Every structure is written in structure tokens, then in C-alpha cells.
Amino acid sequence: MRNLLKLFALSVVLIVAGANIYLWGYLPRYRPPPDLNIIYTPELVARGDYLVNEVLLCFDCHSSRDWTQYSGPAIPPLGAGRPCIDENSKPVGINFGSGGFPGRLCIRNITIDEKTGIGAWTDGEIARAIREGVSRNGESLFPIMPWFMYTEMSDEDISAVIAYLRTIPPVQSFRPERKLDFPLNVLTRLHPQPLEGPVPPIDRSDTVIYGRYLSKIARCEFCHSPRVRRSVDPRPGRLMAGGVPFFMGKDMHYSKNLTPHEDGLGEWTKDMFIQRFRLATKPFPVSEEDNSEMNWVEFSGMTDTDLGAIWDYLQTLEPKEMILLDRAD
């Protein structure tokens, strides 16, 4: 019996040791940064400007926001990061459970400052971070950065985004490294998935395919789809079905059902959908409870063609009744 107990104890030690070697020695999964050959042209930078400011809305997360104004516009200097959140922070944004953050998380500076931003990063390192969720040093990014929405972003569009980011004035704005409590420090290492190779341009002439592409990189799916607990994947059968809770001041708001169900977009037309994005083109004073987590002001800059493509894609989804959730996952 004593020998069996020793053997069992040894087995447990070996399993734990093996798991630790795997978690901290082989994860996250990543590949070397891609060798991007970006040729900087005015057209490429203009495309990047459009993507960063009207579609991806990078500054929504990488800048502080003014919630006394409708849509919470980003506060200059744009891209300089925002204050860290921790266990004492007020819950804001998408609701993954009440209470403070389990650890410390700081949204980084994405200006081209070489010491505190991404100025010393290669184009390939920036592309890998955005699309594959791995930092310059090989560390996994916390999935509040929705890299999993950007995995299908074409090399053409990621090059445009990088070209534009290189034009943003550098801002020296230091952000401390994150500290994640268990089990987040382990779970975060499991998510990144390296791309297998180049990502070709999307066929913009097929509006359904292009609309799906835009709905991913504009994070429609991220905010309007309930997620599997402790995963970056949407719940099966609930894609774009809405009901995801967001903290807005003392209130809870819920994302809209974007499927063609009667409590979603079932009674809408394409023109109604497009015109909804034209209702707020400039910020205006508003209480936090009456505000919107969705930055309608910035999204109002999307073209009719792109918004129409998103509509065409959404109309192909299976109609689903909206279910209001207690938390997003």
C-alpha cells in the first residue's frame, strides 16, 4: 500500500510538472512574424485611415473615452493607451461578471513612440499581434484585444492599418505590464492560433462574403454574439442574436439582435439599417446611463456600400429570438 501511495504521488508530481512545462514552455502557440513588404502609398494610408477610424475603431480601446458625450469619443492623444484596470476598478463595457478585474490590465500605447509604443516593432510583429494575439515578446494578448475577430483580415488590409498607424504622432505614454490572477494567466495562453500563411484579399464584389468580413473586423460579432464561457468562440446557434449585457453607468444595456428575427432586424429594410448609422455624426452631451457603448459617431463614417454589404450578410443568418443574458459568457 505504501508503495502504491508513493507511485501515485510520483505520478501526480510528473503530471503537474509536465503540464507546467507545456503551459509555460510551449504556449502560447505562435509563429515568427510574417515578412510583410509594405509599400507605403497615399492610397494605402487612406485605406488604413478608414479602417482604423471608421471600421476597427482602434482608438475606442487604445485611448481614454469621454462618457459625458454620446458614443464616448476617444480623448486625445489618440492611441496613447488608457489607465489600467484592476480589482478596484468600476465595471465598464461588456459584462463578463460583476466586480473588479482579476489582476491588472493596461491597454497599451499604439503610437510609434519607440520606448513606450510600437515604434520599435516591425510591421510583421504588429500584424501578428493584431491577427494572431501574440505580442512582440511572444506573450499572448489578453482577449479584450479582439485579435480573433481579425484573423481573416487580408494582408492588404493589415498593411493599410499598419501604414496608417505609422503616421500617428508618437506619444510617450508608459503602461505597466499586466498581471493576471489564476486561472486567467493560464487560460489566456491557450487561445492564440498562428495563421498558416498569407491571407488573400477579400472579394468585395460578393457583398455577402464582404459583409461577413466587415462584420468580423468591425466587431459586430464580438458585441452581438454571446460567447462560450472562458472561450473566444460564439455560442453555437446564437451568432448575432444579441442580448449581450453592457455596463453603462448604473444601468445595464443589451446589444441588439442582428438576425432577421421579428425582435431583431426582421421589420427593417436595408435603407433603414444604413440610415440608422447616419443619426449621430457628432458627439453631444448625454448622461452615462443614456449613452451607448457602440460608437455610432465613428461608425457613421462607414460608406453606404460597406454598410449595405453588412446588411446583405446579416440577412443570410438564421432568425433567432433574442435572450437577455446575465453575463456575456
Low-confidence stretches: 11-19
Order of helices and strands: HHHEEEHHEHHHEEHHH
pLDDT averaged residue by residue: 88
Major sheet summary line: 3 strands, antiparallel
Main-sheet strand order equals: 1-3-4
Helix run count: 11
DSSP strand count: 6
Q: Structural class, from secondary structure content?
A: mainly alpha
Distance from N terminus to C terminus (CA atoms, Å) equals 45 Å
The domain tally reads 2
Helix content: 25-40%
Global Rg: 21 Å
Categorize the overall geometry. Answer: globular
Describe what this molecule looks like in 3D.
With 329 residues, the protein is mainly alpha-helical. It has two domains: 27-190, no CATH class; 207-314, no CATH class. 33% of the residues lie in helices and 5% in strands. The chain has eleven helices and six strands. The protein has helices at 2-25, 42-56, 58-62, 123-132, 155-165, 184-190, 207-217, 220-224, 270-276, 296-299, 304-314, and strands spanning 85-86, 93-94, 103-105, 179-180, 245-248, 251-254. It has a three-stranded antiparallel β-sheet with strand order 1-3-4, with no helix packed on it. A three-stranded antiparallel β-sheet has the order 2-5-6, with no helix packed on it. A hairpin with a 2-residue loop joins β5 and β6 (251-254). α2 packs across α5. The longest helix has 24 residues, at 2-25. The chain is globular, with a radius of gyration of 21 Å. 32% of the residues are buried. Keywords: Heme, Iron, Membrane, Metal-binding, Transmembrane, Transmembrane helix. Residues 43-169 form the Cytochrome c domain.
Concise synopsis of the structure shown:
With 329 residues, the chain is mainly alpha-helical. The chain is built from eleven helices and six strands.
